[in-house]
Design brief:
CATH class: Mainly Alpha
Number of domains: 1
Number of strands: 0
Radius of gyration: 23 Å
Largest sheet: none
Number of helices: 10
Subcellular location: Membrane
Membrane topology: Multi-pass membrane protein
Structural class: mainly alpha
Keywords: Membrane, Transmembrane, Transmembrane helix
Protein name: Major facilitator superfamily (MFS) profile domain-containing protein
CATH superfamily: MFS general substrate transporter like domains
Pfam families: MFS_1
Amino acid sequence: MNKKQIQMSDETAHNSAISIIDALKISGVIEFSICLFFAKLVSYTFLDWLPLYISQTNPGISSSQSAYMTIFFDLGGIVGGISAGYLADKTGASALSCIVMLIFAIPSLGIYYLFGNQSMAMNEALQFIAGIFVNAPYALITTAVSAELGSKVPSKSAMATVSAIIDATGSIGSAIGPSLAGVVSEIGWEYVFIVVMIADLCALLSILRIGFNDCKRLIFIWRTKKSRNNSANQEIISVTTY
């Protein structure tokens, strides 16, 4: 086999699509798929049922008004998605960024349920805050995380397969969430909020391993920079003394 044939075979292997099994073997694909399943479950539950919840728990608000009010949840999602992306780029720790958002998402949902009915302004403000933390992991995983995981293997076609696996798993959650909320809401809206809070907790737990690795890597980088700075300072002091 000549040099040209070897080069062509390498390019073919580089461009060939990987199998689903091989994509699942990539570290982080299964964990982020599970995380997105629960994150989209929560996000789509709110998108589908929030107008009805507002109209039923606030007698003075019509169904059309409640539909307009839910825009604040979407606006919060925009801010959350941008914030999560910036945090992930700044730290290089996507899993840790998702964990931070999920930690705040759980209490924000509880606070919205407890105090969202105090006034229209309070409802809109708490919607916005909940939207930031609920939608941020969903936005980050479907974009930056999928691309990052897909680039871990030599094949150029791996990114589409990895993204499809992660997004398809999340779509299952987006289908189950609103359906489950429809059944649970007949018992009481408080149980719907309990379900979505548990779902966010499950999303958080699913990426703890990757988040722990991110923490170890960031600590190592910080210690390396600190040791380099100390070495540089000592050299400056020795030169000055000489």
